[in-house]
Amino acid sequence: MSAAEGPLVVGVDTSTQSTKALVVDASTGQVVASGQAPHTVSSGAGRESDPRQWWDALCEALRQCGDAAHEAAAVSIGGQQHGLVTLDGRGEPVRPAMLWNDVRSAPQARRLIEELGGPKAWADRTGSVPGASFTVTKWAWLAEHEPEAVRATKAVRLPHDYLTERLTGQGTTDRGDASGTGWWASATEAYDAETLAHVGLDPAFLPRVVRPGEIAGTVRDSHELPFSKGTLVAPGTGDNAAAALGLGLRPGTPVLSLGTSGTVYAVSTHRPADPTGTVAGFADAHGDWLPLACTLNCTLAVDRVAALLGLDREAVEPGTSVTLLPYLDGERTPNLPNATGLLHGLRHDTTAGQLLQAAYDGAVHALLGALDLVLDADADRTTPLLLIGGGARGRAWQETVRRLSGRPVQVPEAKELVALGAAAQAAGLLTGEDPAAVARRWNTAAGPVLDAVERDAETLARISGVLSDAAPLLERAPQDR
């Protein structure tokens, strides 16, 4: 381990498929140790995980960090958004957590929108029109399908809340992650009593919302982690808000994240409220806002297409007129929770590499379509698009984003931006700085810039046309096909 110049902090990313932990020098941003451990996610109709495995994975990831983790003065946890964690009176999970990409609650989402005033009323109150990803819809699904689980529930948490509470013994969350539940009102920055009453959720079951810069607690006596008692614990936040901190984002800089899900977002000083539901009006982790659009199908869906074709993920070929909408898990943007993948325009001379390129095009199309809605009207459209996430270093992803966006693309060299953002949040507790300023001091967004190329408007228009024509088919429930 290299000698650190300043105090050490730990940043954690508890994502859909794994937990990653970084031990970071708060002065320089140098990563002095890291660890990672996997999670399992159910297959079939739902997407669920046992929250206890997140804790086990955190223990293992920190064990891999060695002595450096023991020296940390503060810790913060960034985590996958929206997941519904239900706990009994002893703090034990009542059932597996329903994850963000579990779309079984699509009927409940439609019903809640209608019952509580329609899309505009929801956007005005909470900043977002809830889809099947939002926690409130999952609670409504649980009440309808597993009422015994609801009766046994005495506390409701998000994934990052669950781990923070196991560290501190106190139920807390932050405004960034709370804004993705559907029961936190962005207009008042408080839990919404009308929504909670409508879905039958006791507000006493919810965690306290810790303000930016406030200490969520300290590490308690009884735990299995290498932290000393009294180690400071930051509020933590959702994964996208943590990545925004990790990049040190200033308002107006667009981000496109390529992971299990795809997201496009930017920090804004204006509270968003999109009644179309395309843009979620999330809060960020330091007092501003994070308008965001999210797709369910991104790198995993494209990798699945590559595997079906027997190709390496980079083996794309140009010159295709085929359209592939890779909606393998339903879709959130556009809002098509019942959709499956769709292939149109296949001909005798279509190659496997062209099919794979079509999958990339289909995955990027929806994200870029939402970009103008995410950015404020006065945002500089020539600012490079920051490309992050697991796919960001892939040549095929980079070239597809460049061709379809027509913008310069910057690929930050820093890895694990969610965990780095959490580390910056922890460092802010020690230094009194804005965590985004900490990340800028660490120069986390530095990386090569790929020049803009002419936008491929023809491909974008073709995909939009196929999507429009196929919408009635994609909207059907499976039993109606």
Explain the overall architecture.
There is one protein chain. The chain has 481 residues and is of the alpha/beta class. The strands form seven sheets. Strands 1, 2, 3, 5, 13, 14 and 15 form a seven-stranded mixed sheet that branches. The protein has a seven-stranded mixed sheet with strand order 18-19-17-16-22-23-24, sandwiched between helices. It is globular, with a radius of gyration of 21 Å.
Residue fraction in strands: 15-25%
- What structural class results from the helix and strand content? alpha/beta
Share of residues in helices: 25-40%
Largest sheet: 7 strands, mixed
Let me know the number of strands: 24
Number of helices: 16
Overall radius of gyration? 21 Å
Shape: globular
Structure in a nutshell:
The protein is an alpha/beta fold and 481 residues long.
Key attributes of the depicted protein:
single chain, 18% strand, globular, alpha/beta, 481 residues
Topology:
Blueprint: E1 8-14, E2 18-25, E3 31-38, E4 48-49, H1 51-65, H2 67-70, E5 74-79, E6 85-87, E7 97-98, H3 106-115, H4 119-126, H5 135-145, H6 147-152, E8 155-157, H7 159-168, E9 172-174, H8 175-178, E10 184-185, E11 190-191, H9 193-199, E12 208-210, E13 217-218, E14 232-233, E15 237-238, H10 239-247, E16 255-258, E17 262-265, E18 280-283, E19 289-295, H11 299-309, E20 323-325, E21 342-344, H12 352-374, E22 385-388, H13 395-405, E23 409-410, H14 417-431, H15 435-442, E24 449-450, H16 457-475
Parallel strand pairs: 1-5, 5-14, 5-15, 9-12, 16-22, 22-23
Antiparallel strand pairs: 1-2, 2-3, 4-7, 6-8, 10-11, 13-14, 16-17, 17-19, 18-19, 20-21, 23-24
Helix pairs in contact: 3-5, 10-14, 10-15, 11-12, 12-13, 14-15
